[in-house]
Specification:
The complex is a heterotrimer of chains A (about 290), B (about 280) and C (about 270). By secondary structure, chain A is α/β, with parallel strands linked by helices. Chain A has eleven helices and ten strands. Chain A has one domain: P-loop containing nucleotide triphosphate hydrolases (Rossmann fold), CATH 3.40.50. Chain A has a six-stranded mixed β-sheet, with helices on both faces. Chain A is globular, with a radius of gyration of 21 Å. With about 280 residues, chain B is α/β, with parallel strands linked by helices. Chain B starts with a strand and ends with a helix. Chain B has a six-stranded mixed β-sheet with strand order 6-7-8-3-9-10, with helices on both faces. A four-stranded antiparallel β-sheet of chain B has the order 2-1-4-5, covered by helices on one side. Chain C folds into two domains: about 140 residues, no CATH class; about 80 residues, no CATH class. Chain C is built from nine helices and two strands, in the order αααββαααααα. In chain C, a hairpin with a 2-residue loop joins strand 1 and strand 2. The chains are: A alpha/beta (about 290), B alpha/beta (about 280), C mainly alpha (about 270). At the A-B interface, helix 6, helix 10 and helix 11 of A face helix 6, helix 10 and helix 11 of B. Chain C: It is found in: Cell membrane. Chain C: One of its GO terms (cellular component) is plasma membrane. Chain C: Keywords: Cell membrane, Membrane, Transmembrane, Transmembrane helix, Transport. Chain C: One of its GO terms (molecular function) is transmembrane transporter activity.
């Protein structure tokens, strides 16, 4: 089932002023329910406008955005946008900057309370969310500002999960974390997507993450969607990636270098495990 | 070769925290070297960088810059020798425009205006930002702001450049341009570079690596010595360079070489291996 | 609505007015605002209005855009004018109810006040439209220089002003981001009782303050690392230069004053 549909969506900031700026033009995009989609594109390609439209934080200037049964266009009311928001959770870049409550638990319960849950229900959801992101229950009564950077990030993520969104948008969720933190957070989202049957949309500059986790990759450039497809279809053409200001995943670059030296890959590897499996197979079969 | 930075048993703990942020750190940095200080977030890397620039009063130990002990009465002299680029591009941009920001350090050192104009222009050309001289920071990307920060450093002609995760908040394109620029600047001005990072690929560019964990120096050596310790790097919350990752994944099936393999060497080695089997 | 307000925004159209020395623009704008109060006839207001229109046209900013930017403020002026009309007395009485009345003098007074406000807003908008905040700060510093003699820390004040201005867009951007994050967590800033709306500001203010303090702290460290030890003795990179056209602008204003005095004496 299609969960999200963009129908000829355009967006212009401050129309009719000298500050007018077109951010998106003619976006058509379908995202199926319970899938993992990566949106990639260089800075300023329109990714962040796109996700703000998805969460009803902005209204399309033209066209319409459909999420589940709700459709919003340029004339939609604030109530309709708010309804949209109940289905969608966003983990913004550096989400720890949204923390403000006295305790970790209160901060996580803030979202559910805004959705009309009672204090009790909200705290129960908050406790659940803490378990999901791997925060120790003993931290519930601490101030979020006493925690380490990595823990603060988890609190912020739990605050979004506690609202039980069906669609989870992640905007550079690992920015600023060290490699261990990055690995743990990315694994966490992959697990959540499977267990909670979420529709996950990841906005990222890390092509390795897009290649490893996504079912579908959406490439944006100059406010338009220039290509969509499975990671294997997208990451196989380094020249095309560079023309769209994207990095080539290390695995792709490595496999391509091996191809020039006589190795053959089918299917084209997206992860180190896939790569080495085919490499050792070819070395063995060559030896026989 | 003489040590341009020399730390002897440096310790520091933040007043309101338990445990030492830096614990009994001793090391030397050779003049002209590129040294990467590597460790996970919160391991004390940034605290160390600040201590070297006299930006915090460490509790124990001594740091020598170019043979001179850092003390209160010579700290401003010593800072002249050190250029510092911080992590957040926005929070070190003092000037209202690009040119003003580059001039900020020169103004602090009473450089006459005519000389200042030449130096600002030179520095901006060096980092490829001269067309942006009159732009305000809000109109620049993170990578461009960091280039301006580097221009501010270059204009002062320091001997040492400290980078405190200067590329960690940039997008890949921004990171790439900064790293390329750094290599170039280092050549041109014979800089000693101390780069704080948790990016293992950046560390691989260095001459020497200091491995930090919980405020302690746990190991040091050349990239070849440090980066071959895959399990230990992962344990310390870091990553393994890509070539080594491939090597590790293959080691159950194949007899892989012990020495450090970057991506290119790994490709070459596999190619030879393939030719041998044919 | 506020995104349309032009006052305080710089529009780089690079006109003759843009290129004037900011000190000239600052002093002349203030001077103009003062002489507006010397106008006491419709003829005088018409003359000042015409002059203002010429100035606005010479900024090369589209008139329609300028008007759109002024419009939201007109309501505030109208409100003040109506209050003024209702409470002032004298001349023929057209209507009255309790302490309120509409009189001949009241109407004329109201009209004058409307003209004054409009002219003041137009001229100060022209100032901010054609002068980047940074240059206004430079002009303030330059004009304050004599105060150094009485130990006013002019350089520090100027640097503070310049840093504050430099961080305005950064913090606005940050505010927008935090608002988005809290809206995504279900905060509604646009509906509900006043009390509810005031409460909904807390989740923005606290993160904003924390971030601003962090920024200030990091900025201070960066400044120290770059050798900042206080304003005294620092050399200056940015200087202002007075040109012939600035003197010409002053002369134009002298002519305006003379005409205004003439109108006042002979009408």
């Amino acid at each position: 089932m299609a969960e999200i549909e963009f129908n000829q969506v355009g967006f212009v900031y401050q129309p009719g002023t000298p500050f007018e700026a077109t951010a998106l033009t003619d976006i058509n995009l379908t995202i199926e329910s319970n899938t993992y989609t990566a949106i990639v594109g260089h800075t300023g390609s329109g990714k962040s406008t796109l996700i703000q439209l998805l969460d009803g934080l902005l209204k399309p200037t033209s066209g319409s955005v459909t999420v589940g049964k709700i459709t919003v266009g340029h004339d939609s009311s604030n109530q309709q946008l708010a309804k949209l928001r109940q289905h969608v959770g966003i983990v913004f870049q550096f989400p720890e900057s949204q923390l403000f409550e006295e305790t970790v638990l209160k901060d996580i319960a803030f979202g559910p309370k805004n959705l009309g849950k009672t204090n009790e229900e909200a705290e129960q959801l908050a406790n659940q969310a803490m378990r999901l992101v791997g925060l120790d229950a003993s931290l519930a009564s601490h101030s979020p500002f006493e925690l380490s950077g990595g823990q603060m990030r988890r609190v912020a993520i739990a605050g979004v999960l506690a609202m039980q969104p069906q669609i989870l948008i992640l905007d550079e969720p690992t920015a600023g974390l060290d490699p261990r933190g990055q690995r743990e957070i990315m694994e966490l989202f992959a697990q959540l997507q499977q267990q909670q049957q979420l529709t996950v949309i990841l906005v990222t500059h890390q092509m390795e993450d897009a290649a490893k986790y996504a079912d579908q990759v959406v490439v944006m450039n100059h406010g338009a969607v220039v290509k969509t497809g499975a990671p294997r279809e997208i990451f196989i053409e380094p020249k095309w990636l560079q023309a769209n200001h994207l990095m080539v995943p290390k695995t792709t670059a490595f496999a391509q270098a091996l191809q020039h030296h006589g190795f053959k890959f089918d299917p084209f590897p997206m992860t180190v495990a896939e790569l080495t499996a085919q490499v050792s197979q070819q070395l063995e079969s060559g030896a026989q | 070769m003489t040590a341009i930075i020399s730390a002897k048993s440096v310790s520091y703990h933040y007043p309101d925290e338990k445990g030492d942020a830096l614990h009994d750190l001793s090391f030397d940095v050779k003049q002209g070297d590129w040294v990467a200080v590597v460790g996970h977030n919160g391991s004390g890397k940034s605290t160390l960088a600040k201590a070297i620039d006299g930006l915090l009063d460490f509790n124990d130990g001594e740091i020598f810059i170019d043979g001179r002990l850092i003390q209160e009465d010579n700290i401003w002299d010593i800072r002249r020798k050190i250029g510092f680029v911080f992590q957040n591009p926005d929070n070190q941009f003092v000037g209202a425009t690009v040119a003003d920001d580059v001039a900020f350090g020169l103004e602090n050192r009473h450089v006459p205006r005519t000389e200042m104009i030449t130096k600002v222009n030179e520095a901006l050309t060096m980092v490829g930002m001269s067309e942006f001289a009159d732009r305000e920071p809000a109109t620049l990307s993170g990578g461009q702001k960091q280039r301006v920060a580097l221009a501010g450093v270059v204009a002062m002609r320091p001997e040492i450049l400290i980078l405190d995760e200067a590329t960690s908040m940039l997008d890949p394109e921004g990171r790439e341009t900064i790293l390329t620029l750094l290599k170039q600047l280092r050549q041109q001005y014979h800089l000693t570079v101390l780069a704080i990072t948790h990016d293992i690929d950046e560390a691989a560019m260095a001459d020497h690596i200091l491995l930090i964990d919980d405020g302690r120096l746990v190991d040091q050596g050349t990239p070849a010595e440090i980066l071959t310790q895959g399990d230990r790097l992962l344990e310390l919350g870091l990553d393994v360079p890509f070539g080594e990752k491939v090597k590790r994944a293959l080691q159950d099936e194949l007899q892989v070489p012990k020495e450090y393999m970057n991506s290119n060497r790994m490709v070459d080695w596999l190619w030879q291996k393939l030719n041998l089997t044919k | 609505m506020f995104s349309k307000v032009l006052f305080g925004r710089y529009v780089p159209t690079n006109s003759f007015i843009h290129r004037l020395d900011p000190r000239a623009k600052l002093v002349l704008s203030f001077y103009f605002i003062v002489i507006i109060f010397f106008a006491n006839s419709w003829l005088a207001y018409a003359f000042l209005g015409l002059f203002t229109l010429v100035v606005i046209l010479s900024t090369k900013v589209k008139l329609g855009f300028f008007w759109d930017g002024i419009k939201p403020l007109i309501w505030i002026i109208l409100f003040t004018v109506i209050l003024q009309m209702l409470f002032s007395n004298g001349g023929h009485i057209y209507w009255h109810w309790g302490i309120f009345s509409i009189t001949q003098f009241g109407l004329i007074n109201g009209g004058y006040i409307f003209c004054r406000f409009l002219l003041i807003i137009c001229m100060s908008t022209v100032l901010t439209l054609t002068t980047p905040p940074l240059l206004i700060a430079d002009a303030v510093e330059s004009l304050m220089k004599p105060l150094i003699k009485i130990k006013v820390p002019v350089y520090e004040i100027a640097l503070m002003l310049s840093i504050a201005l430099r961080f305005v867009p950064t913090l606005l951007d940050e505010t927008q981001k935090i608002m988005n994050a809290q809206r995504a967590r279900g905060v509604d800033f646009s509906t509900g009782s006043i009390w509810k709306r005031i409460k909904s500001v807390i989740p923005i203010l606290i993160p904003l303050f924390i971030s601003a303090f962090n920024r200030a702290d990091e900025l201070a460290t960066a400044m120290e690392a770059r050798g900042y030890r206080g304003g005294e003795g620092r050399s200056k990179f940015r200087i202002l230069q007075w040109h012939g056209k600035d003197t010409a602008a002053c002369l134009v204003m002298v002519v305006v004053t003379i005409v205004l005095v003439g109108v006042r004496l002979y009408s």
